[in-house]
Fold:
Amino acid sequence: MKLHCNYRILSQPFVFLVVFLFTSFTTDKHDVAATAKDQTIMIALLLDTSSSMDGLIDQAKSQLWKIVNEVAAAKRGDGKQPNIEIALYEYGNAGLSSSEGYIRQVSALTEDLDVISEKLFSLSTNGGNEFCGLVIKTALNELAWSASNADLKMIFIAGNEPFTLGSVSYELACGAAKKKGVVVNTIYCGDFNDGIALSWKRGATLTGGTFMSIEQNSKTVYVPTPYDDQIAALNDKLNATYVYYGASGESRKEQQIVQDKNAASYGLANIAERSFCKSSHAYKNSSWDLVDAAKDNEKVITETKTDDLPTEMRTMNIEQRKVYIRQKSEERINIQVGIQSLNKKRQEYIYKNTPQSSKDKMLDASMMKAIKEQGRAKNLKWEEGC
Structure:
């Protein structure tokens, strides 16, 4: 069987705690017609960072770009691709405020995937109390959820304590999520039947979500390919096409390199996953990169102050700036095409060299099954065989 997609996740069962908490408290009226213009997949990751979750956090770090690539492959009925926004919460960490229920918003909903990577790699574990109902309620209240019924709004929450703990009823929290069109998917870190007994399955069922169980201490296993080195080399060239601007632009560009290194800490296969993401529509940096920003509004090239530009652009006149950014944009497109071409071969190689028994046990397969099933209701599709 030939693989037709560019984003298959290849790992043994891993504990990737993804909580996609999507809610809109503002109205009960939904704009079904929004599909004709824009559509967004909104994801909130709710991660248990208590002492027993070291394996979970490690897998989350190692699987971020694979998961993003899977989600980013979605297409609308008209063939266009939806926007992606991700938020991140941690809960159950004894180092967090008890008055806040040991819950912290690590990142609000954002399209900036480097921010999510940066925040994820900053997480550490510390024993505490895990209140699932409260963290779901908190994410529903705090995040800027869309009011559009066309958007796919999801929670993936993972942990290993009873789903019933805390003063906020998980039933009430999940009921509120359902009213707002938010699907709660639960991932129990441990035995499947234990997860059922501890109400993790019921939490998902209340919103029409999916219940899964995983072994959080299993290590992600990558399949090395002949294409990993080539993709990594193209990623270095890709970074050279980013042109920072603004007061924080230079630090954000430096952070891009840091997140490359974080991904590479799990091996060439993982940096290949990140590189492929950077070649896709999902990777947006309009807030600090002139090439991306100019696609939204070319005026940014002329309006940016000289002191907020990189050294090589400070002596350029307006027309020279435009030519320079246009050249960088063309270079980027060519490099991205090269990465996508190599990644297609890479995914086909991985598919052919991964035992079927391993494929059947992959967490990403369970997660993507849930996302695809729920995405169909929003007119989203994924290519056959992915």
User: Anything to note?
Assistant: Residues 227 and 346 are 6 Å apart (CA to CA). Residues 318-352 form the longest helix (35 residues). The chain is about 45% helix and 15% strand.
